Amino acid sequence: MAITGSVYAPGNTGANWVNQVWANTIDRAAYNLAVIYPLVKEYVALHSTLNIPLHDNLSSSTVAGTADMSSFGLTFSANTETAKTFTPSTTNLNVSVNYNQIARMMVDPQDTLRVSIEMSIAQSIDQSVATLFQSFTTNISGSYAAPLDLSAILEGKSKVKAGAKEYASNQINFCYHDLQDDAVMSIGNFVQAYVRGDNANPAVSGKIVESYGLRFYSTSNIRTAGGGFNNALFIERGIGISFNQKPTIKAQDNGLAVFLLGWADHGTGTVRDAYNCLLKSAAS
């Protein structure tokens, strides 16, 4: 026998009695973490301009045993000093939320927005440092027509060591685009050099921390230009960053709304081009 009338079911008579449940957290979209700029040398606040004095190499000479070593016979090296200049730029991101909107929401969005603003500004600063990579001219390795490979990476490392000399003994950083992770992880020499049979080895973790004297950093903040990725090998002293204001968020009441005002003021620059290497790879 057929049922007459309406059935109490979702989408039918009982539609208004069905609960909607919202999660008590807000799922924030992902940002690229600041990976690169913490690796470079940080200088004092630059104010309107930061000048970094550079002292260049001095050359010694061999003196004959019969030469006059008095002040009349000595030859003095000429000064070849230079300077690098950083100028600041301001990064800004603001969000306004009405109080009635906050009151009606299941979750107060202010904490989520604060984190998101700060992450976005930090990502922008990291990308500004990565933009310097494509301007390296002294040392260049790799090709925009091919993915990263062992020979290109080790060639770049050799060039950085030759250029940075004593300073290269501390740490050489290798920053490459996330989309090149498959190429890097396929280089058996790197993986095998780091495998020790524990849960931290790259065959398990998917990460190479250090291998062949390089510290590995994968990030999508690497920029594209010339038809490919501009990855880089560099030491801390090769690049500089200076902050008048690190990424910060200021909350401000304005009428019946809250302003979340985010900003940073910083400058970046290449200090010693010879201490760095542009490592080109295909954008794939």
Key terms:
13 strands; four-stranded mixed beta sheet; single chain; 284 residues; 20% helix; alpha+beta
Order of helices and strands: EEEEHHEHEHHHEEEEEEE
Q: How large is the count of helical segments?
A: 6
Distance between the termini: 64 Å
Spans of at least 5 consecutive residues with low confidence? none
In percent, how helical is the residue content? 10-25%
Question: What's the gyration radius in Å?
Answer: 28 Å
From the spread of the alpha carbons, the general shape counts as: elongated
Q: Beta-strand level of the residues, as a percent range?
A: 25-35%
SSE blueprint:
Layout: E1 41-43, E2 50-54, E3 82-86, E4 89-98, H1 99-104, H2 110-130, E5 140-142, H3 150-164, E6 172-176, H4 181-185, H5 188-194, H6 202-205, E7 210-211, E8 214-218, E9 224-225, E10 228-234, E11 239-254, E12 257-270, E13 276-282
Parallel strand pairs: 1-11, 5-13, 6-8
Antiparallel strand pairs: 2-3, 4-12, 6-10, 7-8, 9-10, 10-13, 11-12
What does this structure look like?
There is one protein chain. This protein is of the alpha+beta class and 284 residues long. The chain has one domain (39-55, 79-282). The chain is built from six helices and 13 strands. The chain has helices at 99-104, 110-130, 150-164, 181-185, 188-194, 202-205, and strands spanning 41-43, 50-54, 82-86, 89-98, 140-142, 172-176, 210-211, 214-218, 224-225, 228-234, 239-254, 257-270, 276-282. The strands form three sheets. Strands 5, 6, 7, 8, 9, 10 and 13 form a seven-stranded mixed beta sheet that branches. Strands 1-11-12-4 form a four-stranded mixed beta sheet. The mean pLDDT is 92.
